[in-house]
Design goal:
By secondary structure, the chain is an alpha/beta fold. It contains 10 helices and 10 strands. The strands form 2 sheets. It has an 8-stranded parallel sheet. A two-stranded antiparallel sheet has the order 1-2. It is globular, with a radius of gyration of 19 Å.
């Protein structure tokens, strides 16, 4: 079977600039368990299938290999047909580090510009790859808005210099985003957030769309392959939910396809990860079919459990702190 989809048939999200971003992308985070070479091979397979949107990050430790894959892909594709994202890691928030770090990602990815560059987390609290849930950065601190705006100011310079086409954020909350929108000169074009049927983030999702900020959904299937440090006993499994199973059976597809179709119809751009050709194809096809009915969309809306899977414990800054402090659930930025 030829696993191919016409890229022009894939829906797009229109960014505030008027540019188009394919509504399904390929994530490149191997969850500390997939080698850079395997991810790079999957990028080449994905491009052949019809993917044009690739979500990368320096901290994933594979941008050089992904860059080699993108270079091979571009031998048959104009650069303008690709949409490539990278992200600034937490240990590079200092004003002096932002532009050089972006330039390093450009070199590694073998690109002259990025379509989107994101602040990976709003905290400068880094951790080592493969660490466990108890790891803490000795210099960790809470969100400090003045410091974040210095980082963002360098992002604005990157866009003005043409090194990136758009700038954005990831793992933000409404209180933090309100401060950023109040003080920025260039507003974020997109924000990445955890979003799946058991973690729908309706309030934040609505805030983003009303503000003209494109929502990019990570963990769109509930991240069955997430690192061990992000697993807790209370986690639920989206793809085993009876509502998801019922809708999937009705359409003759895997529940993963329903999760992606739901995200796209909702107005987000999901970025699922896989190295399996069949799964890559099914994930992209889900942007086109099945088409969920209003009743099915409403049924999925009814299974939201506010189950955050990527809780972020490694970014906490005080001993004995609850991970919910990272997410400003009471509407106040924790200090």
């Amino acid at each position: 079977m030829a696993y191919q989809i016409d890229p022009s048939s894939v829906p797009v999200l229109t960014l505030s600039s008027g540019a188009s971003m394919p509504a399904v992308g390929m994530g490149t985070f191997g969850s500390d368990s997939v080698t850079p070479a395997q991810v790079a091979a999957a990028v080449i397979t994905a491009a052949r299938i019809g993917y044009r949107h690739f979500d990368c990050a320096m901290v994933y430790g594979n941008e050089k290999e992904v860059g080699e894959a993108l270079s091979a892909v571009q031998e048959g594709l104009p650069r303008r047909e690709l949409f490539v994202t990278s992200k600034l890691w937490n240990d590079r928030h200092a004003k002096k580090d932002v532009i050089p770090t972006c330039e390093q990602s450009l070199r590694d990815l073998r690109l002259e510009y990025l379509d989107l560059y994101l602040v990976h987390w709003p905290f400068p609290n880094a951790h080592d790859a493969g660490c466990d849930v108890h790891a803490r950065n000795e210099n960790a601190r809470p969100y400090i808005h003045d410091a974040f705006m210095q980082t963002w100011g360098e992002f604005e310079k990157l866009q003005q210099q043409g090194k990136v086409r758009h700038i954005g954020t990831s793992n933000m909350t409404i209180p933090k985003m309100e401060l950023l929108l109040r003080d920025c000169r260039i507003k974020p074009a997109a924000n990445e957030l955890e979003m799946h049927p058991h973690m729908q983030q309706r309030e934040l999702f609505g805030y983003l769309t009303r503000s003209g900020i494109a929502p990019i959904a990570y963990c769109p299937m509930g991240s069955p392959g997430r690192p061990e440090r992000d697993r807790t006993p209370e986690d639920t499994v989206d793809l085993e939910d009876p509502v998801m199973l019922s809708i999937a059976a009705r359409h003759g597809v895997h529940p993963a396809s329903i999760a992606i179709a739901w995200a796209v119809q909702r107005g987000a751009a999901p970025i699922p990860f896989s190295t399996n050709e069949k799964h890559l194809y099914a994930n992209l096809l889900s942007a086109l079919q099945p088409r969920l009915s209003e009743q099915e969309m409403a049924a999925i809306e009814g299974i939201d459990r506010n189950c955050r899977l990527i809780k972020g414990q490694v970014f906490l800054w005080r001993e004995g702190q609850d991970w919910r402090d990272l997410w400003d659930e009471n509407g106040v930025i924790a200090q």
